[in-house]
Amino acid sequence: MRKVFISCLFIFTGFFCFPQSEMPEKMKQALLQLRPGIFDLEDKTVEQIFLNKIFISKEQLDGSISTAKYGNFILDGNEFFLNIDFYNGQIKNATITYVLLFQGNSTLLDRIIVNNYQTGEKAESSEFSDKYQMLLVFFNLIDKNSIE
User: Fold this and answer.
1) Can you tell me the mean pLDDT for 70-89?
2) According to the 3-state scheme, what is the secondary structure of the chain?
3) In a domain, 13, yes or no
4) Model pTM?
């Protein structure tokens, strides 16, 4: 009986500890901002910029395939962590995390977190120029036919 109770506890706890796998609809439809109060991207929503994109794959000189994929999506209060994972073959080399802050009618790209798993380096920035550069990186990773 104790084993059954412990098993149920692990299943129940594990179920609620998994990150949320979908962005809330209100955040999807909110206009994206890079700077508070300024619509640098005109009338583009979070969904139009970030979601449902097809990532480009490239063959490396050694024959391995390099690509990016959506990683975990984590919702924590009004913050949403959108992870983009970089792979060389089956090995995850790096992750860029776009931290989005929901503000009602708009969503601010609050900060960027970059993890390089090969070197162990991690960096975080909320500077406009860094956010803009990482947004350009994202645009260069996706198939141009999947941009609205």
Assistant:
1) 95
2) CHHHHHHHHHHHHHHHHCCCCCCCHHHHHCEEECECCECCCCCCEHHHHHCCCCECCEECCCCCEEEEEEEEEEEECCEEEEEEEEEECCEEEEEEEEEEEECCCEEEEEEEEEEECCCCEEEEECCHHHHHHHHHHHHHHECHHHCC
3) no
4) 0.81
